[in-house]
Fold each of these.
Amino acid sequence: MDKVKFRHSFAFKLSLYIITCLVVTLLSVLVCNYYECKNMIMDDMKKDAGILAASTLREVSGAFHAAQQITEDMSSVLENSEITEKELLGLLKDVVRNNYEIYGCTISFEPYMFDKTKYYFDPYFYKPNGVIKYFEFNNNEELNYFKGDWYATPKKLNKGVWSEPYFDKDGANILMVTHSEPFYKTIDGKRKFCGVVACDIDLNWLEKFLTDIKIFKTGYVFILSSKGYYIAHKNKDYTRLGGNIFSLAKERRNVKLKELGEKMIGNQTGFEEYYSYTLEKNCFISYSPLKETGWSIGVVIPENEIFYDLNTVTFKLFVIGVIGYMLTLVIIILLASRMTMPLRTLAGATYEIGEGNFNAQLPAISSIDEIGVLSRSFRIMQENLINYIANLQETTAAKEKIEKELSIAREIQQSLLPRNFPNLKQIDLYATLIPAEEVGGDLYDFFFIDEKHLCFAIGDVSGKGVPSALFMAVARTLLRAKISTTMDPAKVFNAMNEDLCRESESYMFVTFFLGILNIETGLLEYCNAGHIPPLVHTANKGFYYFHTENARPPLGIMADVNYVGGRLELLPEDIFFLYTDGVTEAMNIDDLQFSEEKLLDVLVRNRNETVSNIVNNVKIAVDKHVSGAVQSDDIAMLILKYNG
């Protein structure tokens, strides 16, 4: 026994299916665990980011609140008391020296409001590098403080305001922000604007403070002004060049960044996805408003750093799982190969049987498990198969003999039908027969009784196959025998019916239409024995169904039937069309019949064609209607055209 090679053994497939199920299960657990942990980390991160933002807000708010409180207190002092220039300068100097949050402070008066001799008066103390210095605008038109926003805006709004961050090139040459508070005095019973108290805050300390906040490896905190300008940011270019979040969003065509900016300057609190152009990676951002100034603080957390530990652990688990899966696969294959060894031996033997060696040696497997049962079943199958092949060979030989005999019978049946159609000027005649099986029960016949009388007939034997073909041959033989004794169609049918009823024991019958035409006069004598009505074409009526009044039952049913014939005068160009029900009852795959109406329509459309074309076009129409369905009945057609 040659060894059969299997491309993929049963043991391998079984092992692969088992390990696949394990892989799918464990991967599902791993994925579910990953996303569950990811959601937990995100929830914790939202809380931690919120706490970080809140603590940062408290630190930043403290500095800005102190500056705002100082300006408000100084404004109240100026409104409610008289103060000398020396006291004023001392107050300013003490404020700058004693408050680390304050970089500089000024009290700027309206023209001549503090001193009738001074149009400008705004003493300014500041501490670059921690050293207290003094500066006064005096009569410098280029430094006209009346035009500055820090002075004009609180005067116009009658309330304290925070400025947008700015780079003070003319003064301290640093990035700062100013809180301005207007103050008033009651003069002549009216409250009159006298000037502005302003405190400057150096934002460098704010950037250093935010830089010291560590968020994973590259996370950072930034502050946005009420108009969207970056006050403090990891990217120094944003603050030094007056960067704006809306300008950046427009430049990058980033709609989400624009929406984020609108939320932040709208004093909203939130946590959402964010793309950092500074880090060039996807991040999350937690943002909260700084209510004292109208600013907003944003805590940026890189996404990959949030889930770094989770991704690392998950990857390690995946690698361990892959190694485990491979080891498990090897073990399962070894065990399955050992368990399925008898099955492979049996498969090799059955392969030989499938190749045609029905006497191949099957292995002796004595186990009582499924493989043992399968082996004994194959042994029984082998014995039955050998017997079946022997019987099949005998049956095939017998079938081939029958098919050969049927082929000969078909040739004999076809040879009985006349093939040479008359070539006369008085008539045109054409006929065809298409059996549904090898042989059939339909027939047509035509022959001359004498020089001027043409006999033609068509018949349809009940049933199909060999019995119908034999019955058809008997009917044709009787027709030719009886018509030699008389040219009366009715008498011919009476004689044929008597013989068929007497001799037939199979209860078969045949519908018959017989016509005898005088080709010189056009007189047609006919008789119908249960056959479907023929179609006649005349010049004044066209095609119509010719229903004979004296129709009788088919031949071979009742012996005591007296058949009655009829006469029809044919004129030149008249057509007589005979057919069997295989034409009108031909069915398509939807079980719809061709029908008498369609047959009549085809004949009407082809009335001017030759008789052979008319028959062939009818056959084409039937084939088109059937459209691939199996032919259900024999088809016979005979057409005669009288030319006069």
Amino acid sequence: MGCGGRIIHHMKSHLTRRHFLTYVPLLIPSVTQIHALASPQLQIPASAPAQKGKWWEQEPLRILDLVTAFGQINGQPAAALAQQKAALGYNAEHLHVMQFTGAGIDDQGFFFQTKLAGKQNPDYLGEYLPEAHKHGLRVFIYFNVHSYAMPFGEAHPNWRQVREDGTPLTGVYETATSFCINSPYREWAFQIDRDLCAYPIDGILYDGPIFFPQTCYCHYCQEKFRRRYGAELPSKKERKGKRFEQLLEFQSASLADFLRDTQMVIKAINPNVALYMNGSVLGGNYATGRLPRVINPEEDLIINEGGFLYGDLTRMPLWRPGVMARLQESQSGGKPSVVACAAALKSWNVSLLPDPELRLLYADSIANGAGVYFGMFLSEWDQPEMQTLAAMNRFFAKHSNYYENTRSEARIAVVWSDTTANFYAGSAAQLIDVARVPARSNVGNLEQEFWGLTEALVRAHAPFDVIDDYTLEHAALDRYHAIFLPNVACMSDAIAARLRDYVQRGGNMFTTFETSRYDAAGELRTDFAMAELMGVSSTAKVAGPRRWDYMGKQSPSPLLDRIPRQWIPSPTYYLQVKAAGAQVALSFTKPLAGSYELPPQLSSDPALTVHKTGEGTVVYCAGDLGNMIHDWHTPEPLILVENAVRTLAPVGIELENVPSAVELIHRSQNNGGRHLFHFVNFNGEMTRPIRRITPIRDARVTLPKEITARKIHTLMHPQSLTPQRDSRGRARFVVPMIEEYEVVVVE
């Protein structure tokens, strides 16, 4: 089969949702081809629901991951444990039947029957499964395929991942190693899968597989890469250009091969066994190889760690689980998705978050169209906080019909660019060990730029979707009135052309900093790919850091409404540009020698421009505005984004007596016959973890005129609400109480 034939075969297989694809060792498309071919959603809207078929598509999943692998696997009586899990309201679980030695597994701790066991242990899986199924629990087997005990690794040296310097990988979770999926290890893993599928299990969760920032340069990867590209494996240290693009393609396709071959193994035994893998968090995939658009088609459902909270929570977005759920929905190809949440504040694994934090993690996940998973250890199993999760499980189960087959009604999209995350200097690696995130350039910090703009939209009560590069290039964009691009620095010519067409036909854009200044492989362009569309031209100079400098008003603009001051604090960095048709609303001031060297003086460098072209408008902020919001929360940038929403994409839903820390999510069912307004209240005690939420009383809601309210009721505090009509004929009503979460149903 020639190259073109292979691509057609690959595309055809995915479009028919087949999982048993023929392994073709020479098929490695480019990153551009991967984005074009690796998802089955070419004709599916970003929020299209899965069609019910397999058991995992029947209802939203409420998954428990009770980590028993660090203790005695069969230390809990099977019947009592299954009954207790079901009593807490879970309908599925990740069951641990492989014991950890330190931070990894080996062949000594298998509590099921397998010919690969180095030691025979009691068959706890065989004992447990009938009890779980008796109580309605679907059982996924947790299979860690990325962390192995060091003695087991030393016993299989040709399986281990190898660093660029030729040494085998050590230090996984400090004390473990990892195996390479291109080595003979894969056959060992597949035999474990076969032995597991001999039992009536419901699914397998792979924790992994992944590569690491320094790996893999083993003999098998070297040979496989050489066969495919006719060259040696390039370094991971140079994150740009064709060679690095090939490395990323190779590692991601290797993960997809492993998943695809796993599907062939398990589906040949039982087609009703579901497979999925832990997809981790927002960040560059260059370290791990986990490109969502490549690996998602090989899974039955999608899961990512959107609710694992690490470090200083005052620096972490409260709405992180919901944002991850939105991105998963865009990238899932219509498959069900689950947001993985940890009950503990990491990295203290045997601890517990307070009740409000647990409720918020749960609520923000399900409000945005995802199922939910909670992971915890045995030491937390009997703690009072478990009743908080049980109450949320009961709520979710009771009202599951309001969460099935919903679609987003957002008319704003924010772009998370995996391409930029992988090729841009201002992005971090997506790692399993968060404490070891490598340093990145402070200039144009991608994650903070993204989280800053999404925070501004949440605080503006503007429902939004999160879309990616593939969506920009292939999906219909007309449903969005405005697209926000937070420093989407690396952009293909094809995406730039689609956005040009989108704006010419009436769409609007809000862009920041270096958006489109680099190509899809991270190579610097001479100017923005969208220079003509934005109405500005880059001078290729980045100014900063600006510690006490300002922006000043240059000309009137609706974007500056409710900002009365002449001088506005400046972002830390900005790209020097020249206006080429755009109106300059704000300009940067000349650098001040010190904070008291006043008054500021305007420079000739535009800070905020507005360019009307065709039927649409492009707003461009030359500075890292999202970083400014994330780091400082000064009011003017937040107001500026809110004004951009009012100008470019008016929400239509008006809220009164609702603080900015309440997130509004708008979804619908039955082709708009039922509207669902989710309110997630993050209004806490000005610190985190939050121990007490301040309830919202008498929130006033005005609906757009096109939504006719025949019947209105709430779910968390069940009651009927009586709509009134304002002078414009719009339905108005009052929500008496919003604690952490409320859902208003409008029929």
